Amino acid sequence: MTTAAVYGTGSWGTAFAAVLADAGTDCTMWGRRDEVVDAINAGRNDEYLPELPLSPRIRATTDPEEAAAGADLVVLAVPSQTLRANLESWGSALPQHADVVSLMKGVELGTTKRMSEVITDAAGVDPSRIAVVSGPNLAREIAVKQPAASVVASSDESAAQRVADACHAPYFRPYTGTDVIGTEIAGATKNVIALAVGMAEGLGMGDNSKASIITRGLAETMRLGTALGGEAVTFAGLAGVGDLIATCMSPLSRNHSFGVRLGQGMSVDEVVAVTKQTAEGVKSATSILDLSHRHGVDVPIIEQVNAMITEGRSAQEVVETLLSRPRKSETD
Ligand SMILES: NC(=O)c1ccc[n+]([C@@H]2O[C@H](COP(=O)([O-])OP(=O)(O)OC[C@H]3O[C@@H](n4cnc5c(N)ncnc54)[C@H](O)[C@@H]3O)[C@@H](O)[C@H]2O)c1
Ligand SMILES: O=P(O)(O)OC[C@H](O)CO
């Protein structure tokens, strides 16, 4: 039987721990705050997922070494931009033999590294032991056990199989794959596209406009992902178009909701002030744009979302800029 250590007690760390428990995997969660850890040990993470009664297979601690004790699977679910600092603080506690799962959907600011690359850099984990789990997996829907599928991607097919075994619950169906780059780029980039779709919704636009942004956003994602070495087919799969649809269309998505508020005229600072949870696209827009520039990839939607976030461009200006670009072939 697998024993897991889950680092991060937010929405997805908690929902994924419940998936693991429902798949028969015991979990110890690590969190920074006593009150959240105490609530989990009392059977419910009131702050992040109050609707989810937690299995007795799940317990929590604030001690990273205690969380790691006896684990053969480590799951990382902290905000992307904090991963390196976290691993520098407690990465040495991670068991040498364990598979390491990244649930995070972001690209590191400054280095433009994907999360699996940060894990190798900061904690010395060999890429063959790293798996990425990504797909249309809104935590609040998984928490109430609505059926969903996901991709478990690892450069080592047997690591992907071990992780898929550990998280295959009656309502959670993992598919295995080996395209780590494509899976990670798809997961990080869809958050930025969801900001754009939310912004269109906030401006009062309808489904044609939103579908156009989703589809052209997918084209940007594929151009970037394949330029980095990802496989085109990944972007047609669960981690690609599947997650893009869920995140861009759902009011449960934090990135989508953040974008709606921007479209309604709030500033980034005003939205941040009322957003309790992580909207990864807000931070990763700049790093994904940098990555695209480094590889000579044209990403106009991402560029405009980044301008909204970093330069305070209005949603209306962004729409005008995108629509006034020179016409081109759809497949260029
Ligand atoms: N929520 C979802 O539906 C969902 C689904 C799939 C993937 N993800 C991804 O999972 C990752 C985690 O997201 P989440 O939804 O759990 O976020 P969240 O905002 O719900 O929770 C983040 C957790 O990290 C903690 N945290 C904040 N700053 C920290 C720091 N400096 N060091 C350590 N911990 C810190 C918070 O206290 C909280 O426990 C993100 O990359 C997100 O894109 C989320
Ligand atoms: O709530 P969001 O926008 O972080 O999206 C959550 C998940 O990534 C959906 O798969």
Automatic annotation (TrEMBL):
<dbReference type="GO" id="GO:0051287">
    <property type="term" value="F:NAD binding"/>
</dbReference>
<comment type="pathway">
    <text>Membrane lipid metabolism; glycerophospholipid metabolism.</text>
</comment>
<dbReference type="InterPro" id="IPR008927">
    <property type="entry name" value="6-PGluconate_DH-like_C_sf"/>
</dbReference>
<feature type="binding site">
    <location>
        <position position="135"/>
    </location>
    <ligand>
        <name>sn-glycerol 3-phosphate</name>
    </ligand>
</feature>
<feature type="binding site">
    <location>
        <position position="11"/>
    </location>
    <ligand>
        <name>NADPH</name>
    </ligand>
</feature>
<feature type="binding site">
    <location>
        <position position="253"/>
    </location>
    <ligand>
        <name>sn-glycerol 3-phosphate</name>
    </ligand>
</feature>
<keyword id="KW-0520">NAD</keyword>
<keyword id="KW-1208">Phospholipid metabolism</keyword>
<feature type="binding site">
    <location>
        <position position="255"/>
    </location>
    <ligand>
        <name>sn-glycerol 3-phosphate</name>
    </ligand>
</feature>
<feature type="binding site">
    <location>
        <position position="190"/>
    </location>
    <ligand>
        <name>sn-glycerol 3-phosphate</name>
    </ligand>
</feature>
<feature type="binding site">
    <location>
        <position position="139"/>
    </location>
    <ligand>
        <name>NADPH</name>
    </ligand>
</feature>
<keyword id="KW-0963">Cytoplasm</keyword>
<dbReference type="GO" id="GO:0141152">
    <property type="term" value="F:glycerol-3-phosphate dehydrogenase (NAD+) activity"/>
</dbReference>
<keyword id="KW-0547">Nucleotide-binding</keyword>
<dbReference type="Pfam" id="PF07479">
    <property type="entry name" value="NAD_Gly3P_dh_C"/>
</dbReference>
<feature type="domain" description="Glycerol-3-phosphate dehydrogenase NAD-dependent C-terminal">
    <location>
        <begin position="179"/>
        <end position="320"/>
    </location>
</feature>
<feature type="binding site">
    <location>
        <begin position="254"/>
        <end position="255"/>
    </location>
    <ligand>
        <name>substrate</name>
    </ligand>
</feature>
<keyword id="KW-0560">Oxidoreductase</keyword>
<dbReference type="Pfam" id="PF01210">
    <property type="entry name" value="NAD_Gly3P_dh_N"/>
</dbReference>
<feature type="binding site">
    <location>
        <position position="33"/>
    </location>
    <ligand>
        <name>NADPH</name>
    </ligand>
</feature>
<keyword id="KW-0443">Lipid metabolism</keyword>
<feature type="binding site">
    <location>
        <position position="254"/>
    </location>
    <ligand>
        <name>sn-glycerol 3-phosphate</name>
    </ligand>
</feature>
<dbReference type="GO" id="GO:0141153">
    <property type="term" value="F:glycerol-3-phosphate dehydrogenase (NADP+) activity"/>
</dbReference>
<keyword id="KW-0444">Lipid biosynthesis</keyword>
<feature type="binding site">
    <location>
        <position position="12"/>
    </location>
    <ligand>
        <name>NADPH</name>
    </ligand>
</feature>
<feature type="binding site">
    <location>
        <position position="280"/>
    </location>
    <ligand>
        <name>NADPH</name>
    </ligand>
</feature>
<dbReference type="GO" id="GO:0005829">
    <property type="term" value="C:cytosol"/>
</dbReference>
<feature type="active site" description="Proton acceptor">
    <location>
        <position position="190"/>
    </location>
</feature>
<feature type="binding site">
    <location>
        <position position="254"/>
    </location>
    <ligand>
        <name>NADPH</name>
    </ligand>
</feature>
<feature type="binding site">
    <location>
        <position position="139"/>
    </location>
    <ligand>
        <name>NAD(+)</name>
    </ligand>
</feature>
<feature type="binding site">
    <location>
        <position position="48"/>
    </location>
    <ligand>
        <name>NADPH</name>
    </ligand>
</feature>
<dbReference type="GO" id="GO:0046167">
    <property type="term" value="P:glycerol-3-phosphate biosynthetic process"/>
</dbReference>
<dbReference type="InterPro" id="IPR011128">
    <property type="entry name" value="G3P_DH_NAD-dep_N"/>
</dbReference>
<dbReference type="InterPro" id="IPR006168">
    <property type="entry name" value="G3P_DH_NAD-dep"/>
</dbReference>
<dbReference type="GO" id="GO:0046168">
    <property type="term" value="P:glycerol-3-phosphate catabolic process"/>
</dbReference>
<feature type="binding site">
    <location>
        <position position="105"/>
    </location>
    <ligand>
        <name>substrate</name>
    </ligand>
</feature>
<dbReference type="GO" id="GO:0005975">
    <property type="term" value="P:carbohydrate metabolic process"/>
</dbReference>
<protein>
    <recommendedName>
        <fullName>Glycerol-3-phosphate dehydrogenase [NAD(P)+]</fullName>
        <ecNumber>1.1.1.94</ecNumber>
    </recommendedName>
</protein>
<feature type="binding site">
    <location>
        <position position="105"/>
    </location>
    <ligand>
        <name>NADPH</name>
    </ligand>
</feature>
<feature type="binding site">
    <location>
        <begin position="8"/>
        <end position="13"/>
    </location>
    <ligand>
        <name>NAD(+)</name>
    </ligand>
</feature>
<dbReference type="InterPro" id="IPR006109">
    <property type="entry name" value="G3P_DH_NAD-dep_C"/>
</dbReference>
<feature type="binding site">
    <location>
        <position position="243"/>
    </location>
    <ligand>
        <name>sn-glycerol 3-phosphate</name>
    </ligand>
</feature>
